[in-house]
Batch of 4 targets.
Target 1
Amino acid sequence: MTPVKNGFLPPKPPFKQAKALKPGRDEVEEVVFQALASTERREILRIIRTREGGATYSEILGELALTTGNLNYHLKQLEGLIEKDEERRYRLTPLGERAMAVLRGVDVPENLGDYVSAARASQSLSMHPFVSRLILMAVAFDCLFLAIWGYIAYIAATEGAPVFVYAVLAFLLVAGVVALVGLVRALRTAPEYVRRLERRLGLTR
């Protein structure tokens, strides 16, 4: 039992700061490949790597067609791979050097052209199952609304209705058909806005 002195317990010794756990291979791979997934971030790493003594914010901004907001976002995403020195120049960290080693290891021999084309085509047409289910649900609702509006249009045509009702129904039917075509196209081609939705939902990097 801890002795009591003057009615008070002696102060406990401060906790020792826990040592950072050694990152696993999966964690390192995830961090590196997330950084390299963006064309802008790859270019930022290349600019910093090729500049003697690192690169300043203005030098990076001058070489990329980015707004300051977008550049700030990508620089934030690269924390841990880049760092500022005392002169406020960006330099690669040891982790950033490993990421650049990955980039330097990617060459494009002539005999890989067909494989690259096949991979790009497959990646551009595929989407996450959750997003595809969302789009299928949207298609189902769109078809339901089209059926309802079509039935109302049929009633209006047989029973008679003011002109503005016909105009509204025609607009709704056209909008529904256009939306349906867009949804079906999204399922077949996975356009860029579907990619952005996947990233916003945290399904892809």
Target 2
Amino acid sequence: MSQLLWIISGGTICILLGYLIGSANTSLIIGRFYGTDVRRCGSGNAGMTNTLRTLGKLPALLVIIGDLLKGVLACAAGYFVIMNIFNLQNLHEQRAFIGQLGVLSGGIGAILGHNWPLYFGFRGGKGVLTTFAVILFVAPMYGLILLALFLLIVALTRYISLGSVVASLAFPFLVVLKGNSAEFIVFAFFVAFLVIVRHRTNIVRLIRGNESKLGDKKAKL
């Protein structure tokens, strides 16, 4: 097997593994313990914000923890698989690249799984927390910068969606300005694109002025 085919195969397996992990949508799992499908309430989104509005603070906290953990777990699993299960004896000079490939592939899979979960009819959340966990795992400093930006926007506007969108847009430009590797730049633009696509209805509501703010009990539809 050629090195390119080996790398593509390894990355694909890591994405699939991350997808299976990410498909365990925490808000839907927690919601079942409360006898509620959060997709049928509030904004209809299977994520932390709608869980907070629908079920309260404790369930929302559990969703935060779960979404962060599965992002980290998917990255770690991707790294483990690509570095230990596949034969690397002829790829020693590329260990750093291959390790990062495993982490990024596992992380992308987790985000895709959260957004379109296999176990819940492919109707998931918007992937912000899981995306943040992946970024924090790969590049902690970038994650902290984006978190600070997100918190600043939310503090000033009380729009969680706006904070998510602004932070996601900032991510790829931050990566480019810092002169990162090509694969990391592609990853940054891709995950930012996913966040923007998943927030398209929020963006429309922000423009119209009827987006729900932090503290609102019910989302404006």
Target 3
Amino acid sequence: MAKHRYINTHFWKDNYIINLDPTEKLVYLYLLTNPQTNIAGIYEINLKEIANDTGIIKEIIDTILKRFERDSKLKYCGGYIIIKNHLKHQDFKSPKLQSGIAEIINSLPEEVNRVCIPYIYGMDTLSHLILSNSIQSNLIKSNLNRLKDGFFEERSKENTKQYFDEYFEKWWKFYPRKEGKNQAREFMRNENMSEADFKKLFQATRNYNETVTDREIKFIKAPINFLPVWKDFL
């Protein structure tokens, strides 16, 4: 299902955008509107994908991203784009949207989570937009309080089984090869994994994903083949 991303028409008159060259403007606009974007402004994408979509070679894209990072517009961390102050452009009055942002950030690998929490409140994506302190404070006090342990809400071991499907779906979303979902689910359920195990599994999956970024899908382990050996990637 297609997503809608709305760009303020002032984009082309923004002082920062005006001073970019045409290629940089294209990349900046792409980072705001590509299919991987989400309401949190934090999403996983690799340089090869950006190159394929824009027609710009990876080396130039890498140079442009480094410029944007030097200019405090974004960070590229662990294969994730983190757009600075993207949250300022969202409707924080919506509890559903607040919950969605919290869920996205909660599902990030720990090293990206540590970077993004202070970074996303730092300054504007566009220089003319400002988020009031009261809105930012309300957002932090609401559902984003779920981020305190950087990954999951704190839950007792007894409640882990209750949230198994939620944890599994989060893992399935980030595993790169999508086949044998039911088989993978049953294998994982039979392992009686604790919340701590799920945290480690997500980190192991992130580590594995980084090793197969440019690999054809047929050369990536099927989920049922990865799960028995996931601890090898910690």
Target 4
Amino acid sequence: MKDTLVFDVRYIQDGVFNNHEVEIPTSQLELDLEDVRFINPVRGTVQLLRHSEDDIYVKAEIFTDVEMQCGKCLEPFEEDITATFELQFTPTNNPGEIEDGERYYDGETFDISEDARQALVIQIPVWPLCSQTCEGLCYECGINLNKEHCPCQNTDEIESETPSVNSPFAVLPQLLETAKSENKSKSKNRKEIISKDGTSKT
């Protein structure tokens, strides 16, 4: 079991897949996203293939478990996320010759940690739901409708009506809409943070 995503090209055989089982601490991949808690290490399989004068083809499948807050009922829940990605690294002594989007290495090792981080982050839902059938909270009394029967009248019509201003939960719809907007903004920022040049250098 390998505990790093740095690989030494000297030990990659030509023309055959070199398989590696990996288990990486989430701290090593800087997976410290707001509102998301990574529960377990990142595990998976990385396949490496040397070809065409030391070009390295990489195919990886990784997975982990996260804890998030449901966007409707506000309860924490756990979900497993899986990511797959493929890369190709080319050896070079002059990074200036590499075009945008290409991967390269200029020594005896290369690192796919950032690629793994990006692949996992993009799998995290913008608006997480504990289930597709989540009933959410009653806009009138705030009861979690997944756990209890709502005592309010016309419960089925509450979502389509304006909540009573006297209810302490009257602002709940607005709060949920604000949370949706914030999550969408975070997702946009998350994608903007991901590097667009795709280069990797060790």
